[in-house]
Design goal:
Keywords: Calcium, Glycolysis, Isopeptide bond, Magnesium, Metal-binding, Mitochondrion, Nucleus, Oxidoreductase, Thiamine pyrophosphate, Transit peptide, Ubl conjugation. Its main location: mitochondrion. It is an enzyme of class 1 (oxidoreductase). Belongs to the alpha-ketoglutarate dehydrogenase family. This protein is α/β, with parallel strands linked by helices and 937 residues long. The protein folds into four domains: 117 residues, Orthogonal Bundle (Helix Hairpins), CATH 1.10.287; 341 residues, 3-Layer(aba) Sandwich (Rossmann fold); 224 residues, Rossmann fold; 135 residues, Rossmann fold (3-Layer(aba) Sandwich), CATH 3.40.50. 39% of the residues lie in helices and 13% in strands. The chain contains 33 helices and 28 strands. The strands form seven sheets. An eight-stranded mixed beta sheet has the order 3-10-11-9-8-4-7-6, sandwiched between helices.
Length: 937
């Protein structure tokens, strides 16, 4: 090394250079090495401590900076309901006040440096405040994925991130003009009309349009939108571009609907509109889904609709179809279905690969102050349960709002998970335009009266910085005013409106394929003998490549043994219905809690390997090479959200059989909103048919009030048929017409064959109606509840009522009593009749399809037994079950056959507040009494 140094001193380390120079200068041994000065330990500790404090300060801003962000446009409320300045954001916490001008190393955990390696502390703090404490406050540090956290840091921490060109600012201003002036025009023309205007959050329109622009640039061309009332008309006009005259004509008090549909069209019904996105000239389809007044209920419906659309397109990653959901602040934190939907967002059978959620944060719920309407700091905190980033933004800063929407769009594209944008705004008017908010919020509304609109403030900003002139601004206002006035003139020519203009899920292709002959034709629902055998054999044969449970093997073997006798059990009937439709190209989707196995361990559509995790087989997916997709999925423990999801799936595509099964029928109670607002009244209110099937386990087996009744009476009470009208029998098409005219079908079957035909009829009918099935429990394995092959094949149909076929039918004149019943009670009555030797005296007729009521078949049965007294028997209590529905319709039949003086008696349990007895002993006593009444002559 010394020789090398002699040739080139720079070729060795500086320390050796100094050493060798000393040797050359005659330094003695021990004098060559000069010990460097020792650093003061206290000085070193101070540097380390200050550096760590700076890093802690940076992290504090990343975690808590949103708490001091300037989010409230009114400047009177803290968005997180906390006016305290967080201790961890104070300089005094870290004793750094004296070091503001001192430079510190920029840690790798932040992007605020913008390329600089060191910055003065004063500049570090400024950049942190710009990133986290301005008009945007972001929450993301709770996310447990470091890649996502780092990505979000980069989006918000890089300096000068929010930059818009003059052209982009003018475009944003134009969108604000349309949003603001639309509301002003409606207020001017119809000052006393409710419209649930957008005043106070006019920025929502450019926000939504930014999301659509960004996502359509990335390939999305289908957007399903779910939203409440507020701003709905503005969204239809300025986001979806529904013709203005179609909207304005709805304010005409004399307008009449030209077709079916009810409710307030203006802010309830939806629409589906295809248009060209003017920003990128791409064709996009926008569907705003019809919504009830029940806030947040529409969310899961929209999600199901998007999932269906993605499946139809073969879009497995959500690249072409997506969901935008709008929420109110009080509803987002207060409605439990939001939590259900959030938890659904990443489940394999329910994910739609990311929803962009926009919360219109009025900072008030009708008249309720947020400080008494939620326990969490923000209304959006529920989203944290699924690691969803939340961007809070002052809605009076349009550029910050647009930037937040751009980030959200990029997030969805990259990570395919949910994100929330909290638009902190205000509501300039009350809950509606006729409401006086000063009754309850005087301070807030005094401030609102003095607050200029976001349009006024943004226009002033652009005029001051020279982006536009005052004259250009006024010209833009006048231009859109002329558009509105012209549309108003055109709206007066709209003397009638068709609610078909407001359909959110058009089925044009479906109805085009159904001609007049199809509409009047009642379809045969039978299949061939070969297909029946193939399906049963395939689904009863254990797969050779997995080791299934011995108990499941026995179930499969028993099913095959039954098939060898040309008989089918309940599970077999379901297999045949699903399998035959799948082989005919019809997608089948079965969802609900524990549906793969079945709550009562009867179904076993998914066969699990007993030794290898996640190894399983689904026989119905391998029936044939060209079959349709079969989806069977255990759901989360949710009824409200999941039923809504399946409803949305069904609404989007009429060419699929979609079923939701309750674990027990009475558990559907928690989804009552979906049933009442969407399913029973869907066609009448929202002008949209749907064919969803609800399987509701029902039956009194002594299991107590929580597991007995699916509340059959509630579904029958909602039926839209007239109890006093006997259908016209001389019309060859009365069967199909009766089905077409009612709102849904309600059935309580006793045979697997009827289940099979009912499910196939759902698809083969030329229209769609919901089907409610009181599915059995004990009958699933009952040897009596079997159907022969002949009931499934050839020209066979659903038996709406099954007449007496025993000894009593051979001597009808000798029959003293004719019992009508529905469901499993039939088999119990059959046993009782036999044990009491009353086979010749009592006839029993089963009503399988309770609604629409089989008037013609009931009439035939009554006429067949001229000397019989009539009786209705049910296992439910007298104020429940089918009795209240059946009785007036029976009387209508009696009037038809001129037996007005006759009536039908009741045999069953007495009235009760509870659906069933809580003790086995009481249950047995009630049954004994029921049997005695029914068998009494």
């Amino acid at each position: 090394m010394y020789s090398q140094w002699q040739k080139d001193p720079t070729s060795v380390h500086k320390s050796w250079d100094i050493c060798f120079q000393g040797v050359e200068n005659g330094a003695k041994p021990g004098q060559v090495y000069n010990r460097p000065p020792t650093l003061d330990p206290e000085y070193v500790d101070s540097i380390i401590k200050d550096t760590l404090n700076v890093q802690s300060l940076i992290r504090a801003y990343q975690i808590r900076g949103h708490s001091i962000a300037k989010l409230d446009p009114l400047g009177i409320l803290d968005a997180d309901l906390d006016s305290e300045y967080p201790k961890e954001l104070k300089m005094s916490t870290y004793n750094l006040e004296k070091d503001l001008d001192k430079e510190f190393q920029i840690p790798s955990s932040t992007y605020i440096g913008g390329g600089a390696k060191k910055l003065p502390l004063r500049e570090i703090i400024k950049r942190l405040q710009d990133a986290y404490c301005g008009h945007i406050g972001v929450e993301y540090m709770f996310i447990n994925d470091p890649l996502k956290v780092d990505w979000l840091k980069q989006q918000f921490e890089e300096p000068d991130k929010i930059k818009f060109s003059g052209a982009e600012k003018r475009y944003l201003l134009d969108r604000l003009i349309r949003s603001t002036q639309f509301e002003k025009f409606l207020a001017k023309k119809w000052p006393s009309e409710k419209r649930f205007g957008l005043e106070g959050c006019e920025v929502l329109i450019p926000a939504m349009k930014t999301i659509i622009d960004c996502c359509s640039d990335d390939g999305v061309d289908y957007f399903a939108i779910g939203m409440p009332h507020r701003g709905r008309l503005n969204v239809l006009a300025n986001v979806c571009r529904k013709p203005l005259e179609k909207i304005l004509c709805q304010f005409d008090p004399d307008i009449e609907a030209a077709d079916e549909g009810s409710g307030d069209v203006k802010y309830h019904l939806g629409m589906c509109h295809e248009r060209v996105n003017r920003v990128n000239n791409k064709t996009i389809k926008l569907a705003v889904v019809a919504n009830p007044s029940h806030l947040e209920a529409v969310n899961s419906v929209v999600m199901g609709k998007v999932r269906s659309e993605q499946q139809k397109r073969g879009d497995r990653e959500g690249n072409t179809a997506m969901c935008i959901l709008l929420h109110g602040d009080a509803a987002f934190s207060g409605q439990g279905v939001v939590y259900e939907d959030m938890h659904m967002s990443e489940l394999p059978a329910y994910t739609i690969h990311g929803t962009i959620n926009l919360v219109v944060n009025n900072q008030i719920g009708f008249t309720t102050d947020p400080r008494v309407s939620r326990s969490s700091p923000y209304c959006t905190d529920v989203a944290k349960v699924v690691n969803c980033p939340i961007i809070h933004v002052n809605a009076d800063d349009p550029e910050c709002v647009v930037y937040a929407c751009m980030v959200a769009s990029k997030w969805r594209k990259k990570f395919k998970t949910d994100i929330v944008i909290d638009l902190v705004c205000y509501r300039r008017n009350g809950h509606n335009e006729n409401d006086n908010p000063k009754f309850t919020q005087p301070i807030m509304y005094n401030r609102i009266e003095k607050t200029p609109t976001v349009l006024t403030k943004y226009a002033e900003k652009l005029i001051n910085d020279g982006t536009i002139t005052q004259q250009e601004y006024e010209k833009a206002l006048d231009s859109y005013e002329r558009v509105l006035e012209e549309s108003h003139k055109l709206s007066k020519a709209e003397i009638a409106t068709s609610p078909k203009d407001w359909i959110d899920s058009p089925w044009d292709e479906f109805f085009e394929k159904k001609g007049d002959k199809d509409v009047l034709h009642y379809p045969s629902t039978g299949i061939t003998d070969d297909k029946l055998k193939h399906i049963l054999t395939h689904c009863s044969t254990p797969p050779s490549d997995i080791r299934i449970h011995t108990g499941v093997k026995r179930i499969l073997a028993a099913r095959q043994e039954l098939a060898d006798k040309r008989m089918v059990d309940w599970a077999g009937g379901e297999f045949l219905a699903f399998g035959s439709l799948l082989m005919e190209g019809i997608h089948v989707r079965l969802s609900g809690q524990d549906v793969e196995r079945g709550t009562f361990s009867h179904r076993h559509h998914v066969l699990h390997d007993q030794f290898i995790d996640k190894k399983f087989r689904v026989p119905l997916t391998t029936l044939s090479k060209d079959q349709a997709k079969y989806t069977v999925c255990n759901s989360s423990l949710s009824e409200f959200g999941i039923l809504g999801f399946e409803l949305g799936f069904s609404m989007n595509d009429p060419n699929g059989l979609v079923l939701w099964e309750a674990q027990f029928g009475d558990f559907a109670n928690t989804a009552q909103c979906m049933i009442d607002q969407f399913i029973s009244s869907g066609q009448n209110k929202w002008v949209r048919q749907n064919g969803i099937v609800m399987l509701l386990p029902h039956g009194y087996e002594g299991m107590g009030p929580e597991h007995s009744s699916a509340r059959l009476e509630r579904y029958l009470q909602s039926c839209s048929d007239d109890e006093d009208v006997f259908p016209t029998e001389d019309n060859d098409h009365f069967l199909i017409e009766q089905l077409h005219q009612i709102n849904w079908f309600v059935c309580n079957f006793t045979t697997p064959a009827n289940l099979f035909h009912a499910l196939r009829r759902q698809i083969l009918l030329p229209f769609r109606k919901p089907l409610i099935i009181m599915s059995p429990k004990s009958l699933l394995r009952s040897p009596d509840a079997r159907s022969p092959f002949d009931d499934f094949i050839g020209d066979s149909y659903l038996q709406r009522a099954i007449p007496e076929t025993g000894v009593a039918a051979e001597n009808p004149d000798q029959v003293k009593k004719l019992i009508f019943c529905s469901g499993k009670i039939y088999y119990e009555l059959l046993s009782q009749r036999k044990s009491r030797s009353l086979d010749e005296s009592i006839a029993i007729c089963r009503i399988e399809q309770i609604s629409p009521f089989p008037y013609d078949l009931v009439k035939e049965e009554i006429l067949k037994y001229p000397n019989a007294q009539l009786c209705w028997t049910q296992e439910e209590h007298k104020n429940m079950g089918a009795w209240q529905y059946v009785r007036p319709r029976m009387r209508t039949v009696l009037r038809k056959i001129d037996k007005i003086e006759e009536d039908i008696s009741y045999a069953g349990r007495a009235v009760s507040a509870s659906t069933a007895a809580g003790s086995k002993q009481r249950h047995k006593q009630e049954l004994a009494s029921l049997y005695k009444m029914a068998m009494m002559l």
